[in-house]
Design a protein that fits this description.
This protein is an all-alpha fold. The protein contains 7 helices and 2 strands, in the order ββααααααα. A hairpin with a 2-residue loop joins strand 1 and strand 2. It is globular and about 50 Å long.
Amino acid sequence: MRENSGDFTTPQLVVLVFFRLLIGYHFLFLGLEKLFNPDWTSAGFLLQANGLFAGTYHDFAASDTALSVIDFLNIWGQIFIGAGLISGAFARLACWGGALLLLLYYSAQPPFLSDNLFIDRNAVEFFAVLVLVLFPTSHLIGIDYFLNKKRLSKNG
């Protein structure tokens, strides 16, 4: 590894890449866990929604078509977000997708309507993926490095 990759020192880069891998693993694991559980559905989560959009989430749970689409998007969204973060392929897009998904989870069951004030694991992970958007590493260590190199060689 280079002593200074981009604007990061080696310890900063190591910690940020490890952070990206951990968050990616979490998304990938949750997506695969859902994929390989034939009984999994988001219906229970949607029916427990208690936020501003609770009625909409309840309506989604009541519709077989909407529920199928939401289950598909949730499973494959988590898998692709996790795979993107782990491999460093389209990692910024994966971070934004993760942030959107976590925001939807947060809006369905906002912690301030239960025992927690404003912070739950969805809020923490939301800000974690924003850190990865602000301090990207996949262009230094990841598939994005090779994609950018190929794109620059075509344009240069």
